[in-house]
Amino acid sequence: MFAFLLLLSVLLLTVGFGVFLTSVDRHARNQSAETADGIVVLTGGFARLEPAIQLLREKRGERLLISGVNRKTDDQLLKHALDIEDKLFNCCVDIDQDALDTIGNALGTAHWAASKDYKSLLVVTNDYHMPRSLMELRREIGDIELLPYAIRNRSSGPFTMGERIGQYRVLLLEYGKLVATFLRAALHDGRIPALK
After folding, report:
1. How far apart are CA 3 and CA 93, in angstroms?
2. What is the distance, to the nearest Å, from the Cα of residue 191 to the centroid of all Cα atoms in its chain?
């Protein structure tokens, strides 16, 4: 019985990892082309901020929330790093320095969106981080429409062996976090969360 349950667990985790990889690839290939009320970018990964700023410049949302900014980073440093003009930054960029993880991102984003009465958000993060981000956001954000805008977690050009190993390490770690998030949501909320 133990061997059967172990085999079944391994099988389920393997199939789940395949579903996760498919979801990551789908998000990376299908960036939302829609305009939303607001834009949120979850910091912490590869090349997330610049595309979010560009979406704001293109007026794809009226304001941008940068969630998870290091508390030691002040506005001037952030403006300089992003090469964003003062007028756009001062009128339309909000900074969340309280979020320390994806759960914090979701809580801060929910509060920000509710305070603005937004009904839709463009969500900018890396492709591998998008499934878990959407799961956490949906738990906190209610009926607000979430439009994924995933950034591929790699530079252009061919992979070296070390880069490929590093990429799979990131994917496996993120998959583990997604499984934990899934189980936490299922046990706490009493329902199976959707992986979209």
Report:
1. 54
2. 22
